[in-house]
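Friendly challenge for the regulars: who can give me the structure tokens for this chain first? No prize, just bragging rights.
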Amino acid sequence: MSDKMNALTYDYERDPWSTTRGLWKREVDRPVLDERRDPSDATRVLVRVQYAGFCGSDRGIWFRRAFGDMIRSSLEREGQTTRIVGHELLGDVVAMGSRAHEETRVKVGDVVTTESHLICGRCYQCEHGDTHVCAADQIIGISAAGCFADMAKLPARTLWSVDTARIRPEVAAIQEPFGNAVHCAQQVDLRGKRVAILGCGTIGLFLAAIARGMGARTIIGIEPYEPNAQLARRLGIDHVIVPTAARPDAAAWAHDEVVVRRVHELTEGVGVDVAFEMAGPNSSVNNAIAVTRRGGHVILFGLKSGDFTVENFERVIVNGIQIHGVVGRRIFETWEITRSILESREPNVHDQVWNVILNGGDGTLVDFASFDRDRFEQALHDHTKVVLRF
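First reply, four minutes later:
Bragging rights claimed.
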């Protein structure tokens, strides 16, 4: 076997963050397990990648909107300049370190996916069971080597086995972001609830299917991008509100009166029980608060950096609105629920993901062997979710 492999990479020396975009398919060193050189390889595994999902985070890197500083600082600590990107995968285990069996139940030949957050196991959060908010975690494909490559080296304890007879491989490859939506839906009992999903990108669409399966009575989607709004309708969301245009007289952070009024019309003037903010803009956060009923819940998952303005802050207190910040997945509680949802066919969330969000593979599956940057960027434009096939 060659000591080289192909990978999609970002190199901060060759690809200046402010003047470039995209990832480059380059030949890099194939990972190996060498316990003499690196004793930690004893608890690592090599996974031959079959499929890899392209995440919203990866879009942020491709279009230079997010994670540049995190990538560069982590590479500088490593004395490297090139990062293999990607953190959603499905593959088969081809080699294991001498102590890897102590960290995982998987074995050579098993088909696996992975938790993308590499936890330290030693901080206060890890010691108290909150590993999803580890104080020293690394993220595969951002602050550690990723999976857009023929082979990935991963800590054994991050692996999650998959039965591809029950979950088709293209869907199994994107359990990591699907788990984000599951984690959001776990925050509140959704049975009989009226729900608003603000931002129907990939994870918002996952959430719509999950919320219905968890018993939500009414689901309202708020999505300005018409192709995503169409996908929301295909998923059977009860009402989809498409904001019509920018509001030149309103502050950028202000809520949208038309959207808020429409949500209240659809809820007999009460507001929704649960608002999931999945997009991130300041105005969307204020929309989420404004459409939520007294005593209701606002789940914040959409991520944007910088300071935010909260309108009518006293309303959050006086109306008893409960706000939850959500990140990642509970390891491995969320993964258990994710597997149960996808393996079940009542309701058939699995086929909704494949047929609607992944469009039955039409245009959403891109062969890594013939990767072309321009054609791939067009696929990113045409589809909310793209999966690389190795």
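The chain has two domains: 4-161+358-389, 180-325. Residues 4-161+358-389 form a domain with the Quinone Oxidoreductase; Chain A, domain 1 fold (CATH 3.90.180.10). Your move, everyone else.
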